[in-house]
């Protein structure tokens, strides 16, 4: 397959040169010798760890409090003798309260399971994987991973910089992209919504991405919120993390569904439902997230905050990565919609962000507030150079917009998917 695609990127043209061959979703493959039932049982044993206490949440989740030294990360061969790092070797900054903005009414997110209890010291909360989650998954062996994909190389320009962007064929993305530096960290407040997802095998996110390496074999860390029925079995908005060291071909997964991320926090549930979410023309909620390199401990920390405290969630040991062992080369903030039927026939009606276009702005369109990059100076700055980017402007749009002249813009993104102009 070889073709050229012209895509509008803000005011810039993005030229995608060739479709690389390869990865296509194998779908649900069952070995003939084992019944699906036995396979499901085996997988459940693998995914669920012995727990100290368990909590039944009103949203249907069962949360197991697992001994911090028995968490999935310790199943990784590189982490057999790992000593858990307690906190970053520097003091994390607690938000950016100095920035003046009239959009100061957003509240940090909270998780549904907190109403039903908490995990004791020395444990971490893990969402229990139930039989029905696996039965609803599109593929048993790829459960918790992203579906296989075809990756296209696109040349993307920001000012004088040209760089290769790996576009995943079955995804539609609208994001603010920064490149041109060696990034040692990134953060932002990510506005939280609960957009409709049309089919059970599709998903939609609001997220921050750090990536590095060749376009078809890259290291990636993603954090944010997601509605993903095939992983979570429902259409709630959930906090998620994701990582890979090979563009998602075989390594990496969501949350703690494969070993890699070491969690140190007993109050934040990865994959846990978030409530309330933002309402149209109403109260806005955000997830404040920061991913930052610790050069002393050789890990990437994941940090959030609630109204009162900075919360260190955990870290990825740098050994998990190849080029991101050192730094990230590109940062993105925005939305991602996945559908196995993307670019074939009718467009999906799975929405991105609030489900409304970026042009609707505050409290109607989904936003990213105070996106920040950290370089070798180890201080946070507004990401520059950076540029809004969208693959399908009539389906999901992207715009940097400042309500008041000379103040920092908010990045707005999203849309309904299928509509009159996106058939
Ligand atoms: C872990 O420790 C054991 C015993 O000290 C040692 O034999 C083994 O090589 C270590 N494994 C790794 C991956 O460092
Ligand atoms: C922002 O904060 C200021 C002072 O804390 C307050 O007066 C103002 O009403 C807030 N703006 C919004 C839109 O909530
Ligand atoms: C749990 O740890 C916190 C902080 O270290 C401490 O203040 C608290 O007393 C501990 N709780 C229990 C039950 O040990
Ligand atoms: C990535 O793409 C390049 C050129 O398109 C190709 O030579 C290389 O084999 C690919 N690598 C992987 C891991 O797919
Ligand atoms: C999961 O499967 C059950 C039946 O096994 C079905 O009723 C339900 O709608 C499915 N949910 C999702 C989100 O796939
Ligand atoms: C990539 O991640 C996988 C899974 O954790 C690991 O087995 C592999 O060694 C990693 N690759 C590199 C080159 O570090
Ligand atoms: C913030 O998190 C800390 C530590 O988990 C907790 O003690 C505190 O109650 C939380 N504050 C709010 C407002 O939720």
Automatic annotation (TrEMBL):
Keywords, in A-Z order: Signal
Domain Neprosin PEP catalytic: residue ranges: 164-423
Signal found in the keyword field: yes
InterPro entries: Glutamic_endopeptidase (IPR053168), Neprosin (IPR004314), Neprosin_propep (IPR025521)
Signal peptide: 1-22
PROSITE patterns linked: NEPROSIN_PEP_CD (PS52045)
A Pfam family hit: Neprosin_AP
Alphabetical list of Gene3D superfamilies matching this protein: Outer-capsid protein sigma 3, large lobe (3.90.1320.10)
Protein name from the UniProt record: Uncharacterized protein LOC120280384 isoform X2
Organism: Dioscorea cayennensis subsp. rotundata
